[in-house]
Design brief:
Strand content: 35-45%
Number of helices: 1
Oligomer: single chain
Number of strands: 19
Shape: elongated
Distance between the termini: 59 Å
Largest sheet: 6 strands, mixed
Helix content: under 10%
Length: about 290
């Protein structure tokens, strides 16, 4: 139903698009992306309220919550960042208990890794069922550089396209940390229960772009918050899919207590996507020792 409503409004604005919006700085899952300028403001329904979960957002962040209230005759809302390459169209949702009778919207958005730094206006514009646009509403967000995790040991993999690459780290105990085993901590038989024991392992923070569902991060990290086991470590890069990209350039690095201990770069191509994509998969990127 929501998609049908979106297509109806898009049709009145010139037709719907199959563009996934990978070129946009702002990314909204579940919304329709339209390349090009947004509808021109007019005398249509207004955005009564525009809510942004926070004013500071890092490049590649995917946890920005957007919401708001629209005028009673609004059928959809267009959302975009000032100066972006396109806009997102989202059907209006049901009224909220705090604003009975008025349509609302609520989405989780993300920023691309190349979103411009500094203050940027997040803009919204309501549309009626016939596509008539109302006045613009805006909220300013501050876009900050991509943040890097901290810990006793941090192993990171980043890449430059919307491909699905996977970080594999084999720790000094021979435990492989990757998407299907995101924590190297292993229970010790007979040991007393410790609800915080899992924090002692190396933990994978995210499976970025999994199954080509692009999240804008293009980075994965394995982090030991407490002291990692001493010994030899092996890092591999597995190309699960290029997601229609021709290639991807990657960088792998390891930092021990904030100091770099190893770094490598490489390029993956369609030939790199051949299976298996399982335990032990990927090309060797790094080897290093922890005292």
């Amino acid at each position: 139903m929501r998609r049908a409503l979106a297509l109806l409004v898009l049709a009145s604005c010139g037709g719907s698009s199959t563009d996934p919006g990978l070129e946009a700085w702002l990314r909204i899952s579940g919304a329709e992306y339209e390349p090009g300028p947004p509808p021109r403001p007019g005398i249509g329904p207004a955005v009564m309220a525009l809510d942004v979960s926070r004013g500071f957002v890092a490049q590649g962040d995917t946890t920005l919550h957007l919401g708001g209230t629209l005028a009673q005759d609004a059928n959809a809302v267009a959302l975009w960042l000032e100066g972006d390459r396109g806009f997102w169209l989202l059907p209006a949702g049901l009224p909220d208990v705090t604003v009975p009778g008025l349509p609302t919207f609520a989405v989780t958005a993300g920023l691309a890794r190349d979103a411009p730094l500094g203050p940027r206006a997040l803009q919204a514009l309501a549309l009626s069922r016939d596509g008539s646009a109302g006045p613009k509403s805006a909220a300013t967000i501050e876009i900050a550089p991509r943040s890097h995790p901290t810990g006793e040991l941090v192993v990171s993999l980043s890449w430059d396209t919307n491909a699905d690459l996977d970080l594999h780290v084999v720790d000094a105990n021979g435990v492989e940390i990757w998407a299907r085993n995101p924590n190297s901590w292993q229970a010790v038989p007979g040991a007393p229960p410790d609800p915080r024991a899992w924090e002692h392992g190396g933990i994978l923070d995210v499976d970025s772009n999994a199954q080509c569902v692009v999240d804008g991060r293009d980075q994965e990290n394995v982090v030991w918050v407490s002291s990692p086991p001493g010994g030899h470590y092996v890092v591999r890069v597995d190309t699960f899919s290029l997601c229609d990209q021709s290639a991807a350039r990657w960088t792998a690095e390891a930092r021990l207590r904030g100091q770099p201990v190893a770094q490598a770069r490489g390029v993956v191509t369609p030939a790199s996507t051949r299976p298996p994509h399982d335990l032990g998969a990927g090309v060797l990127a790094l080897e290093f020792d922890v005292p």
